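Two proteins, back to back. First:
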Amino acid sequence: MPLGKKVLAKIENIIREEMDAIGGQEILMPALQKKEDWQTTGRWDEDVMMKVKTSFDKEFGLGWSHEEAVTPLAKKYTRSYKDLPFYVYQIQTKFRSEKRAKSGILRGREFLMKDMYSFHTSEKDLNEFYDIVTEAYFKIFDRVGIKDKTYLTFALGRIIQQIFA
C-alpha cells in the first residue's frame, strides 16, 4: 500500500547512503538472465531457479542471485589490477522456487533484496572490506531503529562461510 511503499523507499535510501559512503556503486542487473551464464557455473539445474521459455523456445531464468550476471560484467570492465577494488550493489526483486521457503518471511518466492558484489586484488583487501561493510550494516540497523544486531552478526557469518566453502 502507499504508506508501506514510502517506508520501503526511506529504508532503501538509507541503505544507498551507507553503501555509497563506503564506495559502493549502485547498478541494476537484469532480473531475466541468460541460461548460458548459469550453465557456465553449473547452477542452471538447481531447483531454486524459476525458469521461463519464450515463444521462440529461448530459455531464461529469473534471478535468485546475480553472481552469474555481475562476474562477466566485472570481467568486461576490469582492464588492470589498477581498476580494483570496486564494489557494486543493487536493490532488486529476487525470485526463488523453493519447495519450502527458507527463513520465514525473510525469504519467500519473490522478495526485495540488496546485494553487493566486490572485486579485490587480494584476500587481505577482501577481509578489510568485509569489516567496513559490517560497520555499514550496523549503521543501517541503527538508522532504521533496529537495536538487536544478533541476527545480523549471524547472517554475516553465514555469508562468509558460503564464500569460502
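And the second protein:
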Amino acid sequence: MTAAPHHIPVLLDEVVSALAPSPGELMVDATLGAGGYTRALLARGARVVAFDRDPDAIAALRADPPEDLTLIEAEFSTMAEALPEQADGVTMDVGVSSMQLDQAERGFSFQADGPLDMRMSQSGPSAADFVNAADEAEIADVIYRYGEEPKSRRIARAIVAARPLSRTSELAAVVRRALGHKPHDKKDPATRTFQALRIHVNRELDELADGLAAAERVLKPGGRLAVVTFHSLEDRVVKRFLRERSGATPGASRHMPASTAAAAPSFEAVGKAVRPSEAELARNPRARSATLRTARRTGAPAWDRSANG
C-alpha cells in the first residue's frame, strides 16, 4: 500500500504512540482517508479495520489491500455492528480530508470552482440542494450554528436572493458581497459559511457523537482511543464526551440527566490535549488547528445511549 500523494497525516507519531499497537492487536481506523494512520498501524504488526463513507477512499485501496487490512465503506458510527470482535484501539481523524478539499469536483472548497456538492458519501442531498430549497431562517441557523458566523442572517438573505446556486464560486461570491470582502483580508469571509454547510450536509457533529459512543462499545478494557479534531465545534464534542465518561462532570445537567451521572466511568483520560509541533506546522500548515485527545477504556460497561450529550 503506497502513500497517497499530497497528503500528510496529522499528528501521526502522537496518534500511533497513544494507540501503542502491538503485533496481532486489532486497531480501528475510523477515518481511512489516504490511509496514513492505517499504514503506520499495519507497520507495527497490528490488524486494522478501516472505515470511510467516501467510496473514493475505499476504492483507492480495495484493488490490492494488505493482508491484515479490512476495508468497510460505511460511517464510523456503525463500527459496533460491523466489527467481529472487540478492538484494542480506535482512532478518528475528524472532518473533511485533504483529498476531498483538493478535488474541485467534490465542491468542498471555494479555492477552485466546482459543483456545490460537499457530500462525503457522494449520496443524499448536496449543499446546492440545501441552499436552493431551505428557507432563509434555516439557512441562517445552520451558518450560525456550524460556522459560528455572527452575520449569518445577512448571508442567508443574500443566498436566497441569488438562488439558484450550483457552483462553489457562485456561493463564495455571494458571501463575499454580503460581507464586504476586501482582497487583502487575511481570512476569506466565505470560510465559515462553507464549513457550516459541509458540517450540515454530512451531519458531522451528530456522526462524531455517535462514533464516540460506538467506540466506547467496541473497545475492550484497556483499549485506547485517539481522536484528532480540527475546529472548536468538533473538539467540544470530544472534550465533553470524555469528561462525562471519565466521571469528571460534576452533578447532572440538561445534557446529562441525574440517572446517568452516577454511571461508572467508562474511560480514563490520558494526558492533556496535544497540538502539532512547530516542526510539523512547517511541514504541513493544514495541521495548525488540529487537537488530539486520548483516553483509555475502563472495565465498566458502556453507558446507556441516553447518556450521550
